[in-house]
Here is the input.
Amino acid sequence: MGLRLRRSDYATLKMVHARLTSLCVNLMRLEEVKSFRLPKELDLRASMIMSDMKEVLEYLGEDTKVPREVSDPLNMVKAYAYISTREGADFITENSDRILRAVRWCISSLERYFARR
Here is the structure.
């Protein structure tokens, strides 16, 4: 029935879920701020998002085992996180709607996974 996770990997996924929830809130707020054109708030949100992205990457290190049913959404978020940490705030601001969709997909996939355990 799929990959058997170590207790530490399950705990890591719980931490990733918490960070993704924070990321989702910050991305939604960024979307609101973009429409109001508040540059200082925009920069603040983008830096908060970048911090969340870095933490997601740290949690999902090379040795973390991930169940198949959440690997695609997690890989999508990881890809955005890698690009964001290298390209910076402009990338986040320009692609926040896409990143938000990926984060929501990942959150819902993780929640379905947790519910079945």
Notes: The mean pLDDT is 91. The chain has four helices and no strands. The CA atoms of residues 29 and 45 lie 7 Å apart.
